[in-house]
Amino acid sequence: MDTDRTVNTFIDFYRDRGHRQLTGDTLIPPPGDPVLFTTSGMHPLTPYLEGRPHPGGTRLVNLQRCLRTTDLDEVGDGTHLTVFEMLGSWSLGDYDGPQSLRWGYELLRDGFGIHPDRLHTTVFGGDGQVGPDTESLRTWGDLGVPVELTTEDNWWSNGPTGPCGPDSEIFVWTGEGPPPQQSTPTTDPRWVEVWNHVTMRYHRHPDGSLVPLDRPSVDTGMGLERLVTLLQGKRSVYECDVFEPWMRTVPDLWDDLDEPSLRLVCDHLRSGIVVVGDGVLPSNSGRGYVLRRLLRRVLTVLWRDDPSRTLSDLPDELLEHTRQHFRQQGQQGGVGSVRSVRSVLLDEEQRFTGLLERGRTVLSRQGFSGRVGTGPLTGDEYDYLHGTHGLPRELVDTLLREGS
Ligand code: ATP
Ligand code: MG
Ligand code: MG
Ligand code: MG
Prior knowledge:
This protein is an alpha+beta fold. Helices cover 39% and strands 18% of the residues.
């Protein structure tokens, strides 16, 4: 099943059950939101999960692009991307958690053809403050799907205060043959999490207390690239159709990249293109700094083996494919055109080239070049190079490594 059909199957399933489809937002949360980027499908819906009436009604479905800076260390494995898409469904004070789980099960089995023997779930087992999620436990029992109880992994909140509650995660078996009897999601990484169903039952106040919400809501989120990867029988997101143009062109463009570098370059470049398409420019703070770090990491990896590599060689096809995939063509302001995205990438490349040249000169003049291979500099030395010469620590480390 390709990506488009996967999306349509999900949306149609929920529309048939009375859900209104929302247009996904950009990666930029509304003004006043303390978070830099949209991190989940529910993120833009927070006020409605706390009881504000939504103009679309009480049953909603959508596809939302997300960016998690917290996942950067995991990027490069088979399942975590920097920018990814989340399929989501919501009951705003409408149907309950068990209904959401039953529909989820039905869609995975009948809509996506996943054999129930390949499913495992986790459920909140309770902590000092809240008892176990018996509703979900009973529902999975009725459906005959194995459950593992956890404490830390199955409590959902979007921050220290606000709506929160127990969640139930659904995992799909990705190993060869049937899953062994004793194998569970927390003990065996061949179980891959695809979908999370959260029952928002509480509001957490700044003093830590939990107050039950008058009308609990249900929020679900499923990673599109992960689901598609499973449905296509692939081992990593980089092998599914979403990355086909990348995997076809990048290894020829910049040959001899090892697998981790290839993955990083594809993930970060694709993420950078989307972020620029949503109107962000590289800068030294906030969103712009996240973007700058993504692009500079790509360049650092590319130049490690061959300093003549340049983003000018990036085929238009990849920029266009990314824009289309994230539905950025018709976005207002024209910021997302292939030409303008390309020029932002190239400007940043030039700026980084200039900074590196200046950095090399400074390091050699100030006598730091001899420090290659002797470990990191002291805090004072980094402060001096940053404060007086504008060289951030990451860049200094890159230059010192380069000289080794
Ligand atoms: P994991 O435990 O694998 O890190 P999570 O529990 O942090 O996932 P959720 O917050 O529950 O993820 O998000 C809902 C779904 O979004 C996940 O079940 C997964 O399918 C998908 N997802 C989460 N993070 C990523 C990511 N970095 N890249 C791709 N898909 C993701
Ligand atoms: Mg995670
Ligand atoms: Mg998880
Ligand atoms: Mg989860």
